[in-house]
Amino acid sequence: MRSTAVVVFAAAVSSLRARTAALSSGMAEFTTATTGRAVGSALASWTWLPEVNSTMEEARRLLRERAAVDDPSSGVLAVGAAAQLAGRGTRGRAWLGAPGNVFLTVALPFSELKLRPRRLLPLRVGTLIAPQIASRLAAPHGRRVALKWPNDVLIGEDKVSGVLIEMDGDDLLVGIGVNLRYAPDVPTSGADRGRRATSMSAHGADASDGTAEALAHAIAHAIATWARGSDDAPERVVDDWSALASWDAQLQLRDEGTLVAPLSLESDGRLRVRRQDTGQEQLLVAEYLY
Ligand code: BT5
User: Fold this and answer.
1) Whose CA is closest to atom 3 on ligand 1?
2) What is the pLDDT of residues 107-122, one digit of tens each?
3) For the chain, N or C: smaller number of CB within 10 Å?
């Protein structure tokens, strides 16, 4: 096993030299320029592509390929791309982006995840992404990174990252977009309206060539490492999430347009809010497929 890893690593090393310099974490486990196995890593497979329609579809394709060769080691598969042509958000909304940003999907074997209740998963994912973003910003900005329920990442009031979760057979596909270099103009009306976007580079992050791949890999590695020992206590997820949450930012219920103020996170991942129109409390459930 180990010698295979060394051979793969050696073969890939020359083309990787420039990029590995930028990798901050999990570097020793980063094995190939295009696709490969990170032996000994929590990430069973890492692929980086120049351009895709959506990393969600690429993840599905790679999972199918893996099943076809009857690869006995399932484990966490991740695929990122330098450019994404048809990125999507939840409920058919579009995810905008340009090269220099992060487009990533991490496929987790669902039945192996021990965290219960499963509704806490998207919240845990948010707590794994936010520190990866905060640690790369210029010092004062890192403290302004916050989570908006369930797992958007904000800098101040503006969205820097979004997460889309889908199921594919037994795999949970976690799609992550991060505005590293570029913040798109988000529509202010229509079905795709949303809060203002911002980028990490606008807050002092290095967004030079190679950094998107390094950040994508670091996020995938953090999620895979968590998944390997995912018997998280629910209280810990609730505490971690609550510590990072943006409690001051009001949320707008998409369908009704009503503003609500977040109050607390329930132990099953639902968010308790107060409606601005009636003053009544309400529990929000994230729309995920489980
Ligand atoms: C999300 O949806 O925030 C999930 C985004 C997931 C994107 C990743 S990229 C890799 C993977 N492959 C994919 O095809 N998708 C995933 P939602 O909460 O529905 O937010 C979408 C809304 O955010 C849009 O309707 C816009 O209002 C706004 N938006 C679009 N692009 C944005 C961006 N780059 N930054 C901030 N806001 C954006």
Assistant:
1) 162
2) 999 888 989 998 899 9
3) N
